[in-house]
Amino acid sequence: MTPQGTPDPQAGAAVKAADRAHVFHSWSAQGLIDPLAVAGAEGTYFWDYDGNRYLDFTSGLVFTNIGYQHPKVVAAIQEQAATMTTFAPAFAVEARSEAARLIAERTPGDLDKIFFTNGGAEAVENAIRMARLHTGRHKVMSAYRSYHGGTHTAINLTGDPRRWASDSGAAGVTRFWAPFLYRSPFHATTEAEECERALKHLEETIAFEGPATIAAIILESVPGTAGIMTPPPGYLPGVREICDRYGIVLVLDEVMAGFGRTGRWFACEHFDVVPDLLTFAKGVNSGYVPLGGVAISQKIAETFEHRPFPGGLTYSGHPLACAAAVATINVMEEEGVVEQAAHIGASVLEPGLREIAERHPSVGEVRGLGVFWALELVRSKETREPLVPYNATGADAAPMAAFGAACKKNGLWPFINMNRTHVVPPCNITEAEAKEGLAALDEALTAADEHTV
Asked: First vs last Cα of the chain: how many Å apart?
């Protein structure tokens, strides 16, 4: 790692050349990308080999919930590596057992059994497998505005365009519209109307699909990549009641929203809802070593007491990853990271973003919780026309590209998806850092304003 402020362009050029020669990047046309060569990272910042430093308003891919290179987590990984680098998942290992215990202590309700995976997509794959075997049904329902991962079942459950190339149309998936008042598919004008109509739509969809055919409904407690649309009061409890009535398993995807991101350990706590299965990854150990999992309710765990669960992973509960999770959860407790996320959201991000929205014609809506926010960028606040078309590429995406370039010029690394920018810094970001980011964002939005009408 090149020390911060120590430029080494020659080293950066070598890293970039090797990347372009040999690394195949995800979700990309390989000849059209120009990845930044990163020299190092610490806390909420990272820097390149030319000495440019960026405030990371993306938390990597919304996973560095305690920032980069936290010394206590780094030390825990080093200590575990010196003690036991790896061991097969069929054995009881201290780091694995302790990680499971700490996670189970924080999940709501009776979600006390933990199945470990390597990441969020595998967590979703296995949660759906559990739901199907538990119910004896095959069909699964998911929302259009959603993202659940890139593996076979997970990508078929996903609603956004990344699904299109892999959607077999035969994965047993049925989709529905979840609530989103700003772009309501139900012609609602209030959150209460949106909630009522979204629940009615869901129940009607279930009726036409056949309740006895549906194994599970999967929802992100607060959708992440799809737009950070906080559900209206009553919606998730309403889904919980519908699932109970029809014997449908409720799976809540907390891969992005969990582990402090919304100012609670898990986002579903905001709504007093306990799912049957809860998927997690990312923030469980701040992404320092790949780890994900499924938190399992008692009734579903009992299904597999005397019946083998037909699923497993060579690296399930990897000791290095679990040691990182133990250290991360302990750091979050000791340093009040969840409380800090709630405080920053309520005291800095929400008021700051709402003030920014008043100054910029390109900002149509501000929404979020904790350190999990989105700005909906539009060509007109009156018509709500998105600043760029849905799934825009090339010249059509130029307004968002100009906004992104302006952010980076100001030392801010933005999270951009379609016509939105998401404000998702580490959960332990300081007030000063958050205000620094808001100032850079405020200035960069003038580039988006140029494309309004």
From this structure: 46
In degrees rounded to 5, what are phi and psi of residue 99?
Answer: -60, -45
Backbone angles phi, psi at 80, to 5 degrees: -65, -40
Query: Cβ neighbours of residue 197 under 8 Å, at least 6 residues apart?
Result: 184, 186, 187, 188
What's the pLDDT tens digit per position in 186-216?
999 999 999 999 999 999 999 999 999 999 9
C-alpha span between 252 and 262 (Å, rounded): 15
Report how far residue 15's alpha carbon sits from residue 10's, in angstroms, rounded to the nearest whole number.
9
Instruction: Please give the model's pTM, rounded to 2 decimal places.
Output: 0.96
Q: Are strands 249-253 and 277-280 parallel, antiparallel or unpaired?
A: parallel
> Which of 359-370 are b and which e, b meaning 16 or more Cβ less than 10 Å from the residue's Cβ?
ebbbbbbbbbbb
pLDDT tens digits, 227-238: 999 999 999 999
Residues in CB range of 265: below 8 A, 6 or more apart: 106, 107, 258, 259, 338
Question: Over the stretch 33-66, which tens digit does the pLDDT of each residue have?
Answer: 999 999 999 999 999 999 999 999 999 999 999 9
Rounded CA gap, 229 and 369, in Å?
Answer: 10
